[in-house]
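Quick note —
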Amino acid sequence: MLLSTLRRVAGVLEVRSFASRFFCSTTSAAADVPGVRAEDVADEETAAEDPTAVPAVIYSQDRLKTLKLDEYPFYIEREWWKEGKRMTFWSNWRMLRDIRRRQKTQELASERMRLKALKFNTILPQAIRDECAEQLNALHKDSHPKLILNLCQFTGRRRGKIKPYRLVRHEFRRLADHGQLSGVQRAMW
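Predicted structure written out below.
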């Protein structure tokens, strides 16, 4: 069952239909697709000519390993899916914007720290300090650490958070009342 599922997933990369749409011959397409042998393409061509013939299985273990379809997760991850560009992943767009700011801040943090140290170094000549200040101002606007917001992880609300749990007070109370927060219970006296 698992192998048939993998074959269906790998069917997206079917050589014959891809080659017939974009290339003049199937052999040139076979050279471009990793894990496809020329014998497999030749078998597929003969199967296309004779409709009663059983098609050759071009999804060998080598091809599944090349496409990394034999490892968990058994699906092809899309780059846009990993980046979280789907609205169901974040509670609102403000949260997605905050994630982008965090990534940009982490990416440019070392550069920003160096330029800031050079800018405020009074031993250096003023021309060098001014040039560092210009480069610091030219950095991406989302790389500034003060723009990072601490949002509620469920609602994306900015105010009324309980810091250790990273939750807004309404969600904290709802989860605590139902016993879904570790180590939290209603006060009783």
